Amino acid sequence: MSMKKTNKETVGFQAEVKQLLHLMVHSLYSNKEIFLRELISNASDANDKLRFQALGQEDLLEDSPELHISVSVDKGQRLLCVTDNGIGMSRAEITQQLGTIAHSGTTEFLESLSDDQQKDSQLIGQFGVGFYSSFIVAQEVEVVSRKAGLPKSEGVRWTSKGDGEFTVESIVRADRGTSVILKLKADEDEFLDGNRVRNLIREYADHISFPVQMASENDEEGEQQTVNRAKALWTRPRAEIKDDEYVEFYKYISRDLTDPLVWAHNKVEGKREYTSLLYIPAAAPFDLWNREVPRGVKLYIQRVFITDEATQFLPLYLRFVRGIVDSSDLSLNISREMLQQDPNVSAIKTALTKRVLDVLKRLATKEVEKYRSFWEQFGLVLKEGLAEDFNNREKIAGLLRFNTTMSEGAKQDRSLDNYISDSGEKDIIYYICADSASSIRANPHLEIFDDKGVEVLLLSDRIDEWVMQHLPEYKGKSFRDIARGDLDLIGKADAETKTQPSKEQKHFLKRVKRVLRDKVDEVRISYRLKESAACLVLGDQDLGYQMQKLLKATGSEAPESVPSLELNPSHPLVQRLEGEINEEKFDSLAVLLLEEAIIAEGRQLDEPAAFVRRLNRLLINSDDADTQDVD
To answer: Do 469 and 517 belong together in one domain?
Structure first.
């Protein structure tokens, strides 16, 4: 390589990158060797990209069609170098990708840091900032590159000491590809030990399909020897692959340092031929709820890398799944649009979706603790499948876990099958939606169910009401929201206890309705309350409060629902209201009962200060009534 330099310039890092570099330079991590894994992974990605682009432009391979990665150490100069002969970078690309990393998630990474350094180091790969882990062990990093297809005179050299800025200069570089050269810190001798580096390569890169080469320290001629197996892991028979190899491959494709929860490796032959290796992570990624972020499995066609964002092979509600698909049935020159329309893709998607759901079912059945961990991380996103995947709705429903009136605390540990088996012959599964898990157990609607020992699903996740609209039944059992419509809990025996309101009660209910006017649709005697004075009941077709909040959060119009107010005739406060002859006191107390019912559901009042004044007057038994608070 000629070191003739032109157009040298010094550039400042993006603000977030400066913060990141400060962290890398001044923090110590328990697993410093992460940098080598990240650099080899980046080199492998560069080779993959060249191999794909060379399908249509064979001249990009120049005079070196065999793709590989080489690692070398120079003890005298304290250098460690990782080189690939992949796609390479132009001057503009190296400035953009190593100076600003606009799409890497750096800001989110920094926001996720804590004082727990070991935990922080686990985040490096997940947030796409792995290159900067080089500064954990290096006092200076140099990157030399030439993009495939560009002339030798358009090579580029990037240098930084991690101090907030970097230099870029044009050079002449004969070889295409990229070399990352680390000038190691004084206390990082372990990475100048050839045997130590070889062991790390075997640990981190054994599954990579490109040979990772390194010269033997005892070989005076410096002949390169392949350190890893250089065979794609998914192409090997399952019986030959150790669990440790599966785990390391997951970490390679996901950039996650945490072991996966479970995986499934399958080879399909016959009408369609493809291999899949799918993983369920142990922890949710930071951007799980950003549905717009491209994500998907890595796609290979006849072992040629195509894309690492093949979203067509799994539905969006399984977006947490990581892995690869290698197909023999798709054309190598297939475009993205054609891929979306190819019937083989639809068939593979159907099969992979079923496989993931089957893996989760086995986990839920045989490894309950692991499944509980999965549910805590991904249960909310799995629920989306009820609305998005009609064909697998019952399978997904069987995987759901709920907090119920029979759960301990707020644990989501009950399945629908548990509910059905414990409820006997009942044809209804009862549930209630609320905004918070902490307040839902005190909801007045539960009183009659607690009294009769009937289990109720307690739904407090923000999407639960929307989800239940797409789950009308499960195994022949229908679902019933206990906060809606008329309640016939037991059937005929319960109905016989319902007597018509007396003439006096009808007059009383009309008086309350006159006070509350358009705040409620109807005022009636309640048969569902045992201890509370009042509760609010929506109509069967009314939009629930969770749905109203969801629609408003998305900027959509949310029509207000007008509930009915039910009063417990045996409650002392209702009896006091019924016997109140002072109209001003009656009006104030009627509004107070409505507000209490709203609070009991865990919702907020529009005018909390007015409620406090009314409550205070009631407590001190004042003769004055606050008529100004009644609309």
So the answer is: no
